[in-house]
């Protein structure tokens, strides 16, 4: 049950941040920071409202999920995909390696990987146009050979 | 990839997680081909970002460890204040760099005291992350989690340096 709450938190955090970032035009840093500040403050001032485990983990999952919502709408603008990224992030959080436990930036790394996973999905499901520096470079090299 | 590999090695006996992590590795590799790359030039001005990241790391570490606010509240507070800095002068290009740089640095301050033992570590990690941020200017532009990944790189490199040389 607690895992389900944490997965839902990841999804909600990503979606709320994306809405504040893109729809309310607050920019990625302010969107992520403000929503995290609100949730962090709530659990800082009311630590006994929920169980100890949830009080410790919800703010961390929320701030991690909020990093997903910092994505530009030029890259992803679909709410479903952002929600899926939030769920994948929570999966990462629940199965994170102890090796990097306590390192700053692990949440951001997990968020980035979650977004990359979601970004790769259209490659498999649809035939999207691929815009990439690697392909441009390959094109240049092939042109030179000709 | 190191981050995924560390999970893979740790969950080697848990087949479902191992399968999912392998799938994630494939997806991430596919995504690298799809994420747009911007070719930006680097100016010396950009290196002021290094100082800003180190500053963000130091403030966040102070809030998190010395004042005991905890990582989430510290980062939220610093990020919110930093996000309003460009409003001082909307035309200044340097001020536009402040929120991202400070927010990136603040993630370094989230490091637990068992790893970030003193200020030297925080400042070293901040400087390394700042350099990474400057060089990654055109990579993953607009991607969520980019700043956190850079902060993680700074912390991991700093702990590697300290492990190897001290």
Summarize this entry quickly.
The complex is a heterodimer of chains A (146) and B (166). Chain A has 146 residues and is mainly alpha-helical.
Describe the structure.
The complex is a heterodimer of chains A (146) and B (166). Chain A contains six helices and no strands. By secondary structure, chain A is mostly helical. In chain A, α1 (2-23) runs antiparallel to α2 (28-45), α2 (28-45) runs antiparallel to α3 and α3 (52-68) crosses α4. The longest helix of chain A has 22 residues, at 2-23. With 166 residues, chain B is mainly α. Helices cover 69% and strands 0% of the residues of chain B. Chain B contains seven helices and no strands. Chain B has helices spanning 2-10, 15-34, 48-66, 71-83, 93-108, 119-135, 146-165. In chain B, α3 (48-66) packs across α4, α3 packs across α5 and α4 packs antiparallel against α5. Chain B starts with a helix and ends with a helix. Classes of the chains: A mainly alpha (146), B mainly alpha (166). Chains A and B meet through α2, α3, α4, α5 and α6 of A and α1, α2, α4, α5 and α7 of B.
List the helices and strands and how they pair.
The complex is a heterodimer of chains A (146) and B (166).
Chain A: H1 2-23, H2 28-45, H3 52-68, H4 79-94, H5 106-125, H6 133-145
Helix pairs in contact in A: 1-2, 1-3, 1-4, 2-3, 3-4, 3-5, 4-5
Chain B: H1 2-10, H2 15-34, H3 48-66, H4 71-83, H5 93-108, H6 119-135, H7 146-165
